[in-house]
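Hi V.,

You were right to ask for the full record rather than a summary. Here it is.
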Amino acid sequence: MDQLIPDTAELIAICTGILCCSIIAWTDFTRRSIWLIPMLTLFIAGFAFRHQHGLITLIIDFAWNLLFVAIILGGVLLIYRFMGVKKVMDRKLGWGDIIMLGAISSWLDPAGFLLFYEASMLITLVLFLLLKLFLRLPEKYPIPLAGTLALILIAFVPFYFFHGYEFLKLILH
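Predicted structure:
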């Protein structure tokens, strides 16, 4: 299989994305808060990473990804409402987690974003359950979702960039 050689803009975007994701993960794990500047920079770097697809394609892909995030968020809010939980945001789900999904949506086309979302949620839940089991975390310890998403994005983007959907075959075989 031919490997793509990233151009200068893509390399700068990848390096910027790795730096931003590292900062986001560090702040989420250590301070349980997210800084806005790395989040915005990650968002812009995602568009720079995919610049060769053209502006219209980027906007359409981004809109589809945001629609998916909105549907998921609406579903989560609806489920909590049925469970009788009135205040979901900042108690069950942080704004940093939602903004992080928005920033990640600029990096991937809709199929890649769906794949990333499913894989990252599964990995996050498994890792968190293992940490709870072995480190005896308190029952109400919040999942640092934005930080975990940032670390998974660092690993996901290079595989997706160099292998596209072929990397599914690498995972499944």
